Known about the structure:
The chain is mainly α and 136 residues long.
Amino acid sequence: xxxxxxxxxxxxxxxxxxxxxxxxxxxxxxxxxxxxxxxxxxxxxxxxxxxxxxxxxxxxxxxxxxxxxxxxxxxxxxxxxxxxxxxxxxxxxxxxxxxxxxxxxxxxxxxxxxxxxxxxxxxxxxxxxxxxxxxx
Length: 136
């Protein structure tokens, strides 16, 4: 987000305000020699307020964007700390994973698989033994 054209114009006018003598043709932003009574000072105050409001608005927008980024970062850190993560906010990359949090579950599933495999192997072996013994 950036300053509006009106806010930019206010800032540009503020840069021209000076303490040299006011002159309708040569120095319309001069405060000296009755420039203050010609509206230069009050105009500069109006420009200052307009410009400051723009700066505050742009700063607030930038702060909100920074807060959004910080919130996403904190969420990513929390996700990484909570457990195995392969992607955070759609971004892939190297993540160190503590396997101890999942190793017990993996070992339990592996034990089930091995038991099923052993049972299947035993069934095949008994079927083959039966076939060999009885010719069936």
